[in-house]
Amino acid sequence: MSTILEQNAPPESADDGPINLIGMSREELVATFAAMNEPRFRADQLFQWIYGRGVTDFDEMTNISKSLRTKLADRFVVARPNISRDLASEDGTHKWLLRLDDGTEVECVHIPEDDRGTLCVSSQVGCTLNCRFCHTGTQRLVRNIGPAEIVGQVMLARDHLGEWPTAERPTIYERELSNIVMMGMGEPLYNFDNVAAALKIVMDDAGIAISRRRITLSTAGVVPLIRRCGEELGVNLAISLHAVRDDLRDEIVPINRKYPIAELLATCRDYPGLKNSRRITFEYVMLKDVNDSDADARELVRIIAGIPAKVNLIPFNPWPGAPYDRSTPERIEAFAEIVRSAGYPSPVRTPRGEDIMAACGQLKSESERPRRAMAG
Ligand code: SAH
Fold first, then answer.
1. Is 223 found in the same domain as 112?
2. Residues with catalytic function
3. Global pTM?
């Protein structure tokens, strides 16, 4: 069984050392500044420096007085997660393994494409869902990560890609990091508060400023939180469907036993914004002889009828000991054709970063028993 630690992220600082400002919302910064008798506009300036410019050294914050900068440097830091490994794939995909303060690790992946660059962000160390085809589900330790660790993944990628605006280059039109998908390790809706806090920071125009239209949150189907995701964040929704009958989905996506297909799809029909040309993405992993027949494709089209949708077919990505095979390209094409002729775009996702185990469902960090987290 999994070792599940139902706890939030550890405090940003284990001792009485400096506190990391990254992860703080605008309101938290304002409150922190108010406690130091500093006005709101100073907090806004700081927000812009750290999230809008990516500055980590207080001395570079030139519109803030020297004395306040010194005061800030005494108490705070602007820190990124530590990178413990950095892997580049032959196809340009890049994976960073991040070592968190308690010694656990998460992965994040940058996938460059012709018209965009997508960062695949993790929401938990490990995952409690145990989907049968997913490597992350085999990791024993699970814990939620905090806003600093989620926003930190985006900031670190932007550092690496050299895409912070500067005085000389205030606007960057074509970014290598243009889109975010919450499709890394973990179930984002099981860590909703921290994911929401992080995404609000990411979307803030004065900060990282990635629009909600360029952010997609993927869930295996935590039905009670889907609506809130739409209302509070307004990001695109992706559903890891993978099966069209409850008996099979119960087996391969076990959260289905709690929230079966009919309930999940009813919630999707109500997803805020669907009438305004927004579409839900259904993800469907192609498992040879398991869920890939013509009959499955026809049933898929039937059950999602009326939902503005796109169906992403993901050829299964293998991992050591995985109990499935990838469907053949011909099978995937035949399946896609049925979905397309019913009027749904159905792109087949090209596996990316397979040589560095960065493709969908291949993420798994070594985190097993961090000393501090297990002590309690
Ligand atoms: N827990 C969320 C976020 C993870 S997203 C969710 O389930 O949506 C990761 C996506 O990759 C999901 O659609 C997942 O089902 C898919 N996936 C998992 N293992 C895979 C594998 N081995 N091959 C291809 N896709 C996989």
1. yes
2. 107, 360
3. 0.92
